[in-house]
Design goal:
It is built from 5 helices and 5 strands. With about 150 residues, the protein is an alpha/beta fold. It has a single domain, classed as D-Maltodextrin-Binding Protein, domain 2. The chain starts with a helix and ends with a strand.
Amino acid sequence: MRSRLTRILLALQLLGGAAPAAERAHSEAIAVVVGTESGVPEVTLDALRELYLRRRRVWPDGTRVIPVNLPVDNETRKSFSKRVLGRLPQDLSGYWNRLYFDGIQPPVVLRTPEAVCAYVAVEPKAIGYMRRDEVDRSACRILFVLPE
């Protein structure tokens, strides 16, 4: 199963990146997603912040959470980080360096919204985000929408 997942993710990354960031508005609605088979019923903004800062690393049922980020230079990630975490991705490098020594890794980074959807579709513990208009509803279920 892991080998298949790795091949899917690698193929998606090799297919190319997202459209140029400059073409997208910074204020687009951002959807927080899980796979369609995920048992996670909902998430709040506060819980999302705790998950992405890795202060909380398990779902309410005790299974581990795998938060997924887009690349640091992605406009959707910048907007998500500002809205949810209150700072830009590059402002968190010191935070992650401190946590690294406690054995806490930052969220997984995938290159495209398609890769995020593919990953959460096969990993029920994962949570990700993308612009609402990029959600593949056959693979992802929207838990929460950050308004424009």
